[in-house]
Amino acid sequence: MGKMFEALKKAEKERVKLLRKAGEDPAVLTDGDGEVDPHLVAWFDRMSPISEQYRTLRTNLIGLDAEDPPRTIAVTSSIPGEGKTVTALNLAITLADDKEARIAVVDADLRKPSVHRLMGLDNQRGLADYLTGSVMLEVVLQRFRLPNLTVLTAGRLPGNPTELLSGKKMEDLLTRLSRDFAWVILDTPPIVSLTDAAVVGSRCDGAILAVKMRSTPREVVREAVALLGKARVKVLGTVLTHLHPVLKDYYYYPYN
Ligand SMILES: Nc1ncnc2c1ncn2[C@@H]1O[C@H](COP(=O)(O)OP(=O)(O)OP(=O)(O)O)[C@@H](O)[C@H]1O
Ligand SMILES: [Mg+2]
Fold it and tell me: pLDDT tens digits, residue range 76-134?
């Protein structure tokens, strides 16, 4: 087993070396052959009002500090199912409109990951595998149908997600990604019952809180904001989701 592992590692290193030599980005060259989820409106219909709202979100994020905007951003919510993943991915796709900017998406929801499913990507290996030390980063990075959008899916579910996310290797990964990419968007689990988003968010420039409109109780959102504050996570703003019956579109309010 040990020998096989060594051989695989060697093969991986060779592959990365060859790709680099050929001037290729060693990020995996497949675009994924699964279907892209229709909730990724920014991918399917750039001209829709919903995509326009994501552009507004991008503008607002940059507007927070035009000189030095937040570039590593965790997306979280108070409770499950509020639209974190959908928000994170639409935002990343919108940021990738700028062809000069390299964007990375990281699925840091190591409990109920879904980035791979929404993007139609493979999830044989990903963040958890990288953090547990068995693979090189270059081998777990994938590309989502755009040359400048790189994705690190969650990988095999680990038994100790919080430990992995709070470890030194995760910290180093974020440093590396923020050096190599213009924006790094991280999907995380909900904050109220799990500490993962606080751990990840505290190592980012800030967090966006997805809030399911007319559903998540106000006090629960307050609790989420308090928890993020306690963990020294900068709340950059909230994104209201599931607005169809009210306003048809998505809305963004800067959080003051
Ligand atoms: N902005 C939105 N407007 C309308 N519906 C949405 C929106 N975002 C997500 N949804 C719906 O809510 C469901 C949950 O979305 P999503 O998977 O993004 O939530 P999540 O917060 O990441 O959930 P989990 O806590 O399970 O990770 C989606 O399948 C979709 O049907
Ligand atoms: Mg999710």
Answer: 999 999 999 999 999 999 999 999 999 999 999 999 999 999 999 999 999 999 999 87
**Ligand 1 neighbour 237 (Cβ under 6 A):** no
What residue's CA is closest to ligand 1, atom 4? 242
Q: Give the C-alpha distances (Å, rounded to integers) separating 139 from 27, 75, 101, 128, 185.
A: 7, 25, 21, 13, 19
Q: Which residue has the tokens 């306003």?
A: 247
Asked if residues 35 and 41 have their Cβ atoms less than 8 Å apart, the reply is no
Q: Which ligand is nearest to the CA of 245?
A: 1
Domain count, the chain: 1
Q: Which two tokens stand for residue 254?
A: 């800067």
Q: Is residue 25 part of a domain?
A: no
Position in ligand 1 atom list of the atom nearest CA 241? 1
Residue 154 lies in a domain: yes
For residue 118, which atom of ligand 1 is closest to its CA? Answer: 17
Q: Kindly give the distance from the C-alpha atom of residue 210 to the centroid of ligand 1, in angstroms, as a whole number.
A: 9
CATH code, 113: 3.40.50.300
